[in-house]
Sequence to fold (338 residues):
Amino acid sequence: MKGQFRLLLCFAAALSLVTTPACFSGRAMAAEDEHCTTAPENGKILGTSRRIEVGTQGGPAIGFKSYPQSLPLNDHEVVLTFDDGPWPGTTPAILSALAAQCVKATFFLIGRNANAAPALVRREIEEGHTIAHHSFSHPGVTMRGLDEAKAHSDIDKGFAAVDMAAYGKAEKEPRVKFFRYPGFADTPSLNAWLGERNIAIFGTDLWASDWLKMTPDEEEKLLLTRLEKQGRGIILLHDTKQATAAMLPKFLEDLHERGYRIVHVIPGSGSAETVPAPPGWTSETEAILKQRQYLPKPPTEKKPKAAKGSSASHRPARKAVLRLSLRDQDILRRSALF
Ligand SMILES: [Zn+2]
Fold:
């Protein structure tokens, strides 16, 4: 009888998207899966300790790496987020590792990848994760390198592609109003545009630097060290990275062993509850973006036509094209960072 009541409570919570801690701590998650009902309660696995709604009204910008506010997490609470998927080579292993520990995460999907692997998007939803947005094409020059109309188009196309893959239809606005900029490269005007649409902008609080070449062990140690220093936070990972997929089972075990708790974020109504950054805060991502000069504008002038038979007039033009091409390649390579 007690169990039936809990199931009813959880069902009501699921419908209303209201946080009901009893449903998401230990045995109550469980309406879905007996393994997730008993194991966390017995202390055998990590589980998901609670979920919080993030109100999207006005398009709050969250995450201390980029913004002077973040989610109100308690000490030893973490939110897991994965970018750039779905990716058939690695996302299934990530999902299996999360499922084994009954952990719910948030996936910021690239629309193009969602188009190519809709079954993985549906699996993420079926397994209870939050599906969010990360543009359609993840442009190498970031949104800062696109003109306003192209940036709008890429973001909107991403919303539609993810929703089509996830739900079989796309409305004017995305169903889950969470967005993360490729490379964290926002602009004031795009932030205002998303804000008018009540789309929350996610930065992050810490990352594993999983865009760098590392062994799974090295990556896990680095992430744990950073987490121990900060004690809590939104964590950025990439479900497209082999090393991340390989280190995740051990990382989740270590989180459990060290007393960390998982918080699952879902979209909510009204304004987001946030906490301010400590005094002296500065944007780390802005410093990185400036260092990389992430304001490239593609050349607009046409290549001058060389006179027929004049090989000398061809040479400078070819050099110019080559130089731009290498620069673009470099930007593309660096943009894979986030
Ligand atoms: Zn990305």
The pocket of zinc ion is lined by residues 83-84, 134, 138, 182, 338 (CB under 6 Å). Confidence is low (pLDDT under 50) at residues 1-30, 306-336. The domain at 45-289 is CATH 3.20.20.370 (TIM Barrel).
